[in-house]
């Protein structure tokens, strides 16, 4: 009997201890909440998607200001500010609300001490771990292969105007519902910034043992709230809605849009955006790894012989910033010219790919692929136009240097032409002080020649240039330079 009473008493004490421990555990998060909101460095992408609806019912406006985080647990009410973050980037800082859910996941509360993915460090988005380390087989909660390690999406006004971001990049994010706002310039990382680098996100390289399917099932609901409809991998990056622009094509041009006859593209996953010729264009992500390049397109026009300036239109909208190193290959009369183009700088404009004389020798085409000097930027495929030109303006040639050399002078000249280019130069000389002009060099393709011996006299020189349309400039009335201005005096 005594033994039973003791066991009973011990059981009561155990229940009391467990009850007290449970109460302490429940109270711990509030007691340990930091005075200052925690800050983590996260890879951020531009949301875009103007005209579409966010998870809290907001219709995205041009130059909007909000963010998306990959958990519905911190989604603000319509137009609400219950949950806000401070974003800090290269000395600029701004506070904005959470009005959308994403990117990729809807249950990744990576900022929470009790986060769903408890085997990952707090502050590391699941998408980042999947992309950089092969976590969950490199896939998101819905089985999609993750294409970038982003843990936050930023609306256009905050991205471009407030933070002055020009490309997707690592930013500091302070989660203000978890503590006091550190204020502009005072955000301090809880963890060191990711070692994935502040330069360029490396391509995904999964281990051989990575599973083919996601190991995390799609949730039916979260806290009694049904998850937002998820876009397919193609839809996630498509930008639909009313056309944002429709560029003017110069009269007489032969223009090939990205869905016209004469345009061919590889069979791969392409995304679309609602700007460009006829209100749309195709695009894909750039890669710096030749083994990952799979997008390639050709514009092949039907041209009559003549002179053309080749121009590519670069649309100004899309899911992310455009590449700064698109590699166009212009084939003209069988000769290939590679043109490196900064699409981001040329956005909303026609960019020149050079001026070419077309003959019947062929072929004539322009090629572009996704292989660039960066990764995860947009390569935009829209319209290439061949603009006929009739050059009626003569070029401008001049003597640029005279150098004393071997009892004579090395005379150098150059010139500029606005369209077709210079094909030859004529050079005249006269003896100072009162000699008349006489021909010295005729129809020279080069830009330098030796004159001499001078026999102790000084001479003046002038140049005229001739372009490919046989436009010849007039002789200048005075000399371009004379030997009294020579450098490198050598006796």
- Average pLDDT rating: 83
Number of strands: 25
Q: Can you tell me the CATH superfamily of the largest domain?
A: RlpA-like domain
Strands of the widest sheet, in order across it, are 1-5-2-4-3-6
Uncertain ranges:
1-31, 195-233
- Percent of residues in helices: 10-25%
Tell me the β content. 25-35%
Overall geometry comes to: elongated
**Number of domains as seen in the coordinates:** 4
Whole-angstrom Rg: 33 Å
SS field, number of helical segments: 4
How would you describe this protein?
The protein is mostly beta strands. The protein has four domains: 32 residues; 165 residues, RlpA-like domain (Barwin-like endoglucanases, Beta Barrel), CATH 2.40.40.10; 135 residues, Galactose-binding domain-like (Jelly Rolls, Sandwich), CATH 2.60.120; 90 residues, Immunoglobulin-like. It is 10% helix and 31% strand. The protein is built from four helices and 25 strands. Strands 1-5-2-4-3-6 form a six-stranded mixed β-barrel. It has a five-stranded antiparallel sheet with strand order 8-11-16-13-14, with no helix packed on it. It has a four-stranded antiparallel sheet with strand order 7-18-12-15, with no helix packed on it. The longest helix is centred in the N-terminal third of the chain and has 31 residues. The radius of gyration is 33 Å and the shape is elongated. The termini are far apart.
């Amino acid at each position: 009997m005594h033994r039973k009473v003791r066991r009973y008493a011990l059981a009561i004490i155990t229940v009391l201890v467990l009850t007290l421990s449970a109460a302490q555990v429940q109270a711990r998060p509030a007691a340990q909440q930091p005075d200052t909101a925690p800050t983590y460095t996260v890879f951020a992408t531009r949301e875009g998607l103007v005209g579409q609806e966010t998870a809290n019912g907001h219709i995205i406006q041009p130059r909007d200001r909000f963010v998306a985080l990959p958990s519905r647990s911190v989604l603000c009410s319509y137009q609400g500010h219950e949950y806000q973050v401070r974003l800090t980037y290269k000395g600029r800082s701004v506070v904005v609300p959470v009005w959308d859910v994403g990117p990729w996941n809807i249950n990744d509360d990576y900022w929470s001490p009790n986060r769903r993915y408890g085997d990952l460090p707090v502050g590391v988005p699941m998408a980042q771990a999947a992309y950089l380390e092969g976590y969950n087989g490199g896939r998101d909660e819905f089985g999609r292969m993750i294409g970038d390690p982003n843990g936050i999406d930023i609306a256009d006004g905050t991205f471009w105007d407030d933070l002055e971001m020009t490309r997707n990049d690592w930013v500091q994010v302070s989660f203000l519902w978890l503590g006091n706002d550190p204020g502009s310039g005072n955000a301090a990382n809880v963890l060191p910034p990711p070692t994935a680098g502040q330069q360029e996100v490396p391509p995904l390289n999964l281990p051989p043992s990575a599973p083919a399917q996601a190991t995390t099932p799609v949730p039916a609901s979260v806290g009694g709230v049904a998850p937002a409809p998820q876009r397919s991998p193609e839809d996630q990056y498509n930008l639909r809605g009313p056309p944002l622009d429709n560029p003017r094509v110069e009269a007489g041009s032969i223009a090939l849009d990205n869905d016209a006859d004469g345009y061919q593209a590889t069979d791969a996953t392409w995304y679309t955006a609602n700007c460009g010729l006829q209100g749309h264009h195709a695009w894909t992500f750039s890669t710096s790894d030749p083994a990952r390049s799979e997008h390639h397109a050709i514009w092949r026009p039907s041209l009559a012989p003549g002179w053309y300036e080749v121009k590519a239109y670069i649309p100004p909208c899309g899911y992310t910033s455009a590449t700064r190193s698109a590699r166009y290959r212009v084939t003209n009369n069988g000769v290939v010219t590679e043109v490196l183009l900064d699409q981001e700088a040329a956005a909303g404009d026609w960019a020149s790919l050079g001026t070419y004389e077309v003959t019947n020798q062929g072929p004539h085409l322009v090629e572009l692929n996704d292989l660039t000097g960066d990764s995860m930027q947009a390569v935009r495929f829209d319209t290439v136009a061949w603009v006929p030109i009739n050059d009626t303006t003569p070029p401008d040639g001049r003597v640029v240097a005279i150098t004393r050399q071997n009892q004579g002078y090395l005379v150098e000249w150059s010139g500029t032409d606005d369209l077709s280019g210079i094909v030859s130069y004529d050079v005249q000389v006269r003896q100072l002080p009162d000699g008349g002009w006489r021909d010295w060099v005729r129809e020279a393709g080069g830009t330098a020649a030796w004159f001499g011996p001078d026999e102790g006299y000084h001479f003046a020189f002038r140049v005229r240039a001739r372009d490919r349309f046989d436009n010849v400039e007039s002789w200048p009335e005075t000399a371009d330079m004379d030997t009294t201005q020579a450098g490198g005096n050598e006796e």
